[in-house]
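so my prof wants the structure for this chain in the tokens format not the other one, which i didnt know existed until like an hour ago. anyway here's the sequence
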Amino acid sequence: MLSYHFRFMKFGIVVPVEQSAQLKAMGYDFVEEMIVRLLQGEVPDEEWDGERRASASALPVPAANYLVPAHLKITGPDVAPEKLRTYIERVVTRAGQVGIRTLVFGSGPARNVPAGFDRKDARRQVLEFLRMMLPYCARYGITLVCEPLNRGECNIINSVAEAMEYVWQIDHTNFQCLVDSYHLWLENEPFEHVRDAMPWIRHVHLADTEGRRPPGLTGKNDYRPLFAELKRGKYEGLISVETINYPPLLSEAAASLEFVKRQWREA
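here's what i got, hopefully its the right format
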């Protein structure tokens, strides 16, 4: 007999909305888009067609990642607060229009602390960015989730434990945490950190560590211990396959979904 959490768990994948029909046929529940692709915060309103594209999707689009492009800095001496504010206001407003309810704060190149820059100042800048953004999120009922990134991609917020420091300090209903298997394993972070963070975990990303390929394709990773922690914590949010290839090959997507569902059942 299937457990409650298996029957109601929703599995998605990061692909363009234009591929949603094929993914729906495979059994995926939703599409997770890229913010810079669909919401396009640097594109003027009269040129933006994301709402039309999202409305044509065969699957819901409840989440989006890649919040801030690399050239729009969040930390360091080149931060332009008003440019960031204009960009974020557009992104969040458009997310509300298309029905996205989860935005992922990864953006490694944008938040990476420049060499020689004071890390306390960088932390303050990240907090300022979050405090600027969250009133917009609250206005549209959107949750911003903090994504830990491995040190090979970014040098700040590298673990679930570090992400939770920001979540606790900000202390805002619309700011929660994300767990990404790829970064978790590369950082050798213990599952105890996931267990401690479970009340604040609102989104999950999956990928194998070898080549950041879709789950199950390399045979290198066992997701069941992570899934067991999610089940123990009564996680009922979304789980997305997020790979280095954008989009992944459709043949890989089908095999990966079958693997993920099997590992979830077995966890």
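also thought this was worth mentioning. Confidence is low (pLDDT under 50) at residues 1-6.
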